[in-house]
Design goal:
The chain contains six helices and seven strands, in the order H-H-H-H-E-H-E-E-E-H-E-E-E. By secondary structure, it is of the alpha+beta class. The protein has two domains: 4-37 and 101-306, PUA domain-like (Roll), CATH 2.30.280; 64-94, no CATH class. Mean pLDDT is 74; it is low at 33-110 and 300-307. It binds a DNA duplex (12 and 12 nucleotides) through helix 5, strand 2 and strand 3.
Length: 307
Amino acid sequence: MISEYEKTRNINIQRNKELLESLGLDKPLVEPKEQKRKPSTTSKKRKSTATNDEAEEPSQPATKSQCIEIATNPDSTVRRSSRNTGKHVDYRSEIRGDQVLPLAFSSGVKISENEGPLGRDDGVRKHDPKTYGSIPGVEVGTWWETRKGCSIDAIHAPWVGGISGGRQGAYSVALSGGYDDDVDLGYAFTYTGSGGRDLKGTKAAPKNLRTAPQSSDQTFENPFNQMLKRSSETKKPVRVIRGFKLKSPYAPSEGYRYDGLYHVEKAWTEKGLNPKGYLVCKFAFKRLPNQPSLPVREVSQSDETTE
DNA sequence: GGGCCCGCAGGG
DNA sequence: CCCTGCGGGCCC
């Protein structure tokens, strides 16, 4: 028995896929090369492309070779899971003891060995997140345990919000599975806008939430949705991070990963995947060429509730 | 697992 | 100031 929710979701996903196809986004511009991870033993070097300024120019994405050359530091690859926070897990002995590696590492979900926050530990930014294009020193594939790390490294400033931007368009977006009918092809994806959620709850039950179910239409009046629409006009590059909650083969198994620059190809509205069919703002993203290929999860996500 | 409630950075 | 938002921690 397929639930109404499932049915609507399948329809929406199909529609969004067709939309991406109609835009020519069903295939990557460049076929991803095979991801070879050579077990280098050279010391870690972090190339900081010292091209600051230029908030107007899309800065160059890091090349693939740059990322691969970063060596594996055995001590720094110890990965903590946000799900295990406060559980007093000795990750180091876990790895050295029984050779169990965290999934994010063993399945090759990372591209770069970079692990944030980079640079400073005091939480002060070295770079301004209110810029278009890449952030100096932060390679495509850089991984953080929490959204706070993304913020410190100026990749995506908001700790919760999915969209950050300015007058000429969005600076960055976070894909974290907030909307079930979004389609993620890696090199292209659909994204749902902000708003239309009742974050306060009722007077009787003031929840003071940060996220909540859809309870009204989204519109392009919403400043964040407006920014993304602007992006589709100005073609400013948008930084994209993918989070572990995203249901996609391109999602990291833990934490958040910087996946490089995308363009917003189209903005539209459609009936969203919610009980009342409230309208949502939708956006089609396309990844810019000449960036490291995205890692794919080996374990397929068979979390379909097929019963 | 789910419910609740919190700080925080950003934008108006 | 105010309010928002694809987190996260804690408690159960």
